[in-house]
Design goal:
InterPro entries: Fe-S_cluster_assembly_SufBD, SUF_FeS_clus_asmbl_SufBD_core, SUF_FeS_clus_asmbl_SufBD_sf, SUF_FeS_clus_asmbl_SufD. This is Fe-S cluster assembly protein SufD. Belongs to the iron-sulfur cluster assembly SufBD family. Pfam families: SUFBD_core (PF01458). By secondary structure, this protein is mainly beta. The chain has two domains: about 10-335, no CATH class; about 335-390, no CATH class. The protein is about 15% helix and about 45% strand. Helix 3 crosses helix 4 (about 350-365) and helix 4 packs antiparallel against helix 5 (about 370-390). The radius of gyration is 20 Å and the shape is globular. The relative contact order is 0.13.
């Protein structure tokens, strides 16, 4: 992929060492359950400057009222349990509080939260599956997944249909636990989805997040990582395919406040069509106490047609020099004719060659899912997206 930046795309980035925390507006947002603690955004705020607020259908200003327009289905293997609990349940909020108005609105508006518990030292025989299917209405939701010490699990959240949806998810990992969480946004074309995904990673625990975004008119997700003890590892992978007129925004924050923890972020996106807009914000904060931190974040974007826009903003703030490593990279490039020519010269038709190039671009991320039926579904979805542009 070329290193040039297409017209309509921007790549920003900053590494801040010490100082007076100039990145606090991005990486240290206030946290609260109270909607009133967050002013209604107007689009001039740093955390909202890329988001078309008029397309949020009231999720940001309190006018979106839950009318039950979403159907939920939760499957848990026999080894796990699920409960429906009220807002006063002490297990809610352990991973972290809401950090923007939409997340706070979602927290204060759901009727019952779902808590899924995997007991300690348990290896699930099959994944937990949470299906969110929009039926044309508005809904708020809160899910908590607790993984006991030395347990292992896969959780799949699948979003389909049409809805205005505000949904928060918490993942709490005990010591030595291993969790892979896959969130698929395969909404219909008019859906709006905003939410916060927060993980609290225990001592020597491993958390893998795979976020896949295809559908929706507007999707705005805020994955966050907190560490509870040394030795925690977080792998954050993302795949998005932004089509004509879609706005897809992923705002990540990794808070290294505990020593000897690791994080790795890889997000890749492809864009096509007029006014397709993808936003990726990757914020990593290494606090003074977090000696021995090892972190890296990478964002790559492939622009398939004219008229698409990418805003890619990696930020890294370091408050201690006693770290293993820290870095970031971001690049946006056009689809290269040389790659097509190479394949076509070997007898591969143009459409098939284009499909192979894009599949190859996303291959390493799809492989992280480790669920063959879901991998095949996502590859088929990529093919469908490409066929629509031919």
């Amino acid at each position: 992929m070329a290193d040039n930046i297409p017209v309509g795309s921007t790549t920003e980035g900053a590494i801040q060492v010490g100082g007076d925390h100039p990145a606090d507006a991005r990486v240290s947002a206030p946290a609260s359950y109270d909607v009133a603690d967050f002013p209604v955004p107007h689009g001039r705020e740093e955390e909202w400057r890329f988001t078309p607020l008029e397309r949020l259908r009231g999720l940001h200003d309190g006018t979106a009222v839950d009318d039950g327009g979403v159907r939920y289905e939760v499957f848990t293997p026999a080894e796990a349990t699920q409960e429906r609990v009220g807002r006063d349940d002490p297990r809610l909020g352990r991973a972290g509080k809401p950090v923007d108005r939409v997340a706070a609105q979602a927290y204060s508006s759901f009727e019952k939260a779902t808590v899924i518990t995997i007991p300690k030292e348990t290896v699930l025989s099959e994944p937990v599956r949470i299906s969110v299917h929009g039926q044309g209405g508005t809904a708020y939701a809160h899910h908590v997944v607790e993984v006991g010490a030395f347990a292992e699990a896969i959780v799949v959240l699948d979003h389909t249909g049409d809805a205005t949806f505000g949904g928060n998810v918490e993942y709490v990992l005990g010591d030595g636990a291993r969790l892979t969480a896959v969130s698929v946004q395969d909404w219909d074309g008019k859906a709006v989805h905003a939410g916060q995904h927060t993980a609290l990673v225990g001592r020597d625990a491993t958390f893998k997040s795979v976020i896949v975004t295809f559908g929706g008119d507007l999707v705005r997700l805020h994955p966050r990582i907190n560490y509870a003890a040394p030795g925690g590892e977080a792998e954050l992978y993302g795949l998005y395919f932004t089509d004509n007129g879609q706005h897809q925004e992923h705002r990540l924050f990794v808070d290294h406040a505990i020593p000897h923890c690791r994080s790795n972020v890889v997000y890749k996106g492809a864009l096509q069509g007029e006014e397709a807009h993808a936003v990726w914000i990757g914020d990593v904060l290494i606090r003074a106490a977090a000696e021995g931190t090892d972190t890296y974040e990478l964002n790559r974007n492939l622009v398939l047609t004219d008229g698409a826009r990418v805003d890619s903003v990696p930020n890294l703030e370091i408050e201690t020099g006693e770290i293993v490593g820290a870095g970031h990279a971001s690049a946006t490039g056009r689809f290269e004719d040389e790659q097509l020519f190479y394949l076509m010269a070997r007898g591969i038709p143009a459409d098939e060659a284009r499909r192979l190039v894009v599949r190859g671009f996303f291959a390493e991320l799809v492989q992280q899912i480790n669920l063959p039926e879901l991998q095949e579904r996502l590859l088929e979805k990529i093919d469908t997206e490409l066929e629509a542009s031919v």
